[in-house]
């Protein structure tokens, strides 16, 4: 068997090196000593493997034991390194293409529990009200503690239409259970809309293979709908868990015509990489921008937000981002699956790593509800007895004040945890503040013709 052959080879090498390790007369180079220690550890591993195969209470396949050992080794490094068997690797490849089966939730490990990075827009997880930072403590009644991340993800997948129950711990609230029906997740990573005829809103929910082309299509659509009269753009990266590095670089390049976008530094100096803007063209034509971020904005979305902030290309608004500043490389293992290995840290153009610290917005805006306050009747000058008439025939009532944005409406009562369902709607408080910011820039900034 394959593993037994490896274990035997390790034992032979230990035996060959042992005399040198025991000899007091012949000093052993440090590298050789380290190799000997490694082979002794591998020999120990082989001995434990054989003992489990022979004496464990239930029969366990060799493949299961080996995969579990590999995954344990990788997952002990950091929350994002892991092993994927052939089936899991195939599912991952489908996922980055924009369509997969499941709940529509990005997760990571946190102190032995599964932590929600963010739900994906429009998916069962988002509709059920799951929020970034939620801890999944049990899946269908089975405690998550002790599971690997891949095991937990596999348990959350299942037949389309089947129901799963997740026990959730949210902050200091008592744990509660959420029942969710699995569905086919088709991720439309980019959607857009025109607000008040002159503010472009672009939301990127994940950086899959369609992200950059989706942004190009969104900008073109917004310019057409506004008849080339856009006053500004809101780029919404809230609850965006990340995705493909090349797509993040491409999207940042859409708005940054030149200069560094991101750099990565690995274990070896020669592995350092720098990604620069190449197009030389800002597809938004230099329009003012506000980028919305929150605690669910992670990885690739932090690359985009960090680049736009460091280049002073956009104002960041919202709350602090997730803080995942590491790069994972998918290494395919021929004949098996693949390993996801953390190989580098990434740095924003200013040389700053956001690992575990996140990106602070320029303007902090917490999620809130928009409600109109009943003030009763208001008296104006025109209501006073004997008030002078305005003889300017061109004047209209209220013409001296800026019109309030149409998204200043009274929202319905919100259920706990459903902020994500309001993204891009008239009830989106953070979006309303971003629109206000862009209107201020349009009023007092330099006038720029958009052709």
- How many separate domains? 3
What's the gyration radius in Å? 28 Å
CATH class of the largest domain: Alpha Beta
Shape: elongated
Class from secondary-structure proportions: alpha+beta
Order of helices and strands: HHHEHEEEHEEHEEEEEHEHEEEHEEEEH
* Rounded average pLDDT: 85
Q: Terminal Cα separation, in Å?
A: 69 Å
Q: How many β-strand stretches?
A: 19
Task: Find the CATH superfamily of the largest domain.
Answer: 2-enoyl-CoA Hydratase, Chain A, domain 1
Largest sheet: 6 strands, antiparallel
Kindly state the percentage of residues in helix: 25-40%
Question: At CATH's second level, what is the architecture of the largest domain?
Answer: Alpha-Beta Complex
Number of helix segments? 10
Strand content: 15-25%
Q: Extract low-pLDDT stretches.
A: 1-26, 399-417
């Amino acid at each position: 068997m394959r593993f037994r052959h490896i274990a035997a080879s390790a034992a032979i090498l230990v035996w060959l090196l042992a005399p040198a390790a025991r000899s007091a007369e012949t000093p052993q180079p440090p590298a050789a000593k380290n190799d000997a220690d490694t082979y002794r550890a591998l020999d120990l591993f082989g001995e434990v493997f054989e003992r489990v195969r022979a004496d464990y209470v239930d029969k366990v396949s060799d493949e299961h034991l080996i995969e579990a050992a590999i995954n344990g080794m990788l997952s002990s490094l950091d929350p994002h390194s892991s092993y994927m068997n052939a089936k899991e690797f195939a599912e991952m490849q489908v996922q980055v293409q924009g369509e997969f089966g499941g709940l529509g939730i990005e997760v990571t490990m946190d102190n032995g529990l599964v932590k929600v990075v963010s739900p994906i827009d429009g998916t069962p997880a988002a509709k059920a009200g799951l929020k970034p930072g939620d801890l999944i403590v049990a899946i269908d009644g089975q405690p998550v503690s002790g599971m690997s991340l891949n095991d937990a993800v596999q348990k959350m997948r299942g037949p389309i239409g089947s129901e799963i129950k997740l026990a959730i711990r949210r902050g200091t609230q008592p744990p509660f259970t959420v029942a969710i029906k699995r569905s086919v997740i088709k991720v439309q990573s980019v959607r857009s809309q025109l607000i008040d005829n002159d503010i472009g809103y672009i939301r990127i929910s994940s950086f899959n293979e369609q992200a950059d082309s989706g942004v190009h299509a969104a900008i073109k659509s917004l310019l057409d709908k506004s008849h080339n009269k856009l006053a500004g753009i809101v780029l919404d990266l809230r609850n965006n868990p990340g995705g493909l590095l090349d797509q993040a670089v491409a999207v940042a390049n859409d708005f940054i015509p030149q200069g560094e976008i991101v750099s990565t530094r690995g274990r070896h100096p020669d592995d350092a990489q720098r990604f620069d803007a190449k197009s030389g063209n800002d597809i938004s034509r230099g329009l003012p921008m506000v980028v919305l971020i929150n605690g669910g904005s992670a990885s690739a979305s932090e690359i985009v937000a960090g680049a736009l902030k460091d280049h002073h290309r956009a104002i960041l608004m919202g709350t602090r981002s997730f803080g995942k500043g590491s790069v994972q490389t998918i290494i395919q293992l021929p004949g098996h699956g693949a390993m996801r290995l953390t190989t580098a840290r990434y740095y924003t153009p200013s040389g700053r790593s956001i690992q575990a610290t996140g990106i602070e917005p320029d303007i902090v805006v917490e999620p809130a509800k928009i409600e109109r306050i009943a003030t009763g009747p208001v008296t104006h000058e025109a209501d006073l007895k004997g008030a002078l008439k305005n003889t300017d025939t061109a004047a209209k009532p209220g013409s001296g004040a800026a019109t309030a944005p149409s998204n200043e409406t009274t929202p319905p009562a919100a259920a706990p945890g459903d902020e994500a369902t309001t993204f891009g709607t008239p009830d989106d408080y953070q979006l309303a503040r971003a629109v206000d910011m862009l209107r201020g820039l349009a009023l007092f900034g330099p006038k720029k013709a958009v052709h």
